[in-house]
């Protein structure tokens, strides 16, 4: 059982309790224009082009069977169709052309994750499966979670919430922690922003909230797109009314850290005109959340002040 892993990021303190390894898996049913990991949206491996690394050796041009590869500093391809054979990557010693995503089995992935066990133990941390949408391959994720938990590694899932509940329930039940994104409370606006409506997502949030799993609701704060007082207050009210027991809401201020990845993929970044929200605005939105009786969670506060012991769940 294999999946495409884009990146394994070590020593993260922003994606769940303690110090964590974050595994980014490929494939996502949403297409948010602010996505910081655009390479995670497509299910298949893609070729990234990095002009600043190119030394103009022209090896890619010579080796390309389709005669479409050109030096990365001159662009991605000449006219024609790339068949993704990877020949240009093999000969590019400057890594100016590189695969984004590597196929790994759950066992191979856990071999990497377990290298940081000492950090998890010392910080009550663990591994967070992110993406993309890690639940697009629930059986792979279940296998990886099971292997981690046999080793006593705490596991978290970060999800966009858009999935068929029956297909993922067994996998979600095994996780120790859930980070659940809600992007907008209005169905039509959600669809316009992400490509899908929010009804399934909100229902799935309710389903997970029924389980005995600590959950944090995450809201990306994108100025002018979803940062209105009405939307944030509606999100907090939904959490207060329908998601009993969640730890709270974490606001994630918009940033442009993923911009270079759009260039590497030759994708158009549509939010150049939007800047990060200022601290005062984020503080005001936090006040709206707490006014609904919902705690605001931040990575700085450690998500959960209590150590979270790793546990092996037995299901069914
Ligand atoms: S992946 Fe293959 S077809 Fe595409 S540019 Fe590289 S060598 Fe050419
Ligand atoms: S092989 Fe790599 S370094 Fe050489 S021209 Fe092509 S992209 Fe540039």
Task: Explain how this protein is built.
The protein is of the alpha/beta class. The protein has two domains: about 230 residues, TIM Barrel (Alpha-Beta Barrel); about 55 residues, Alpha-Beta Plaits. About 30% of the residues lie in helices and about 20% in strands. The chain has eleven helices and ten strands. The strands form two sheets. The chain has an eight-stranded mixed β-sheet. α3 crosses α5, α5 packs parallel to α6 and α9 packs parallel to α11. The longest helix is centred in the last third of the chain and has 14 residues. The two termini are about 20 Å apart. The C terminus is likely disordered. The protein binds iron/sulfur cluster (SF4) (2 copies). One iron/sulfur cluster (SF4) binds next to α1.
Offer a concise description of the structure.
The protein is α/β, with parallel strands linked by helices and 316 residues long. The chain contains eleven helices and ten strands.
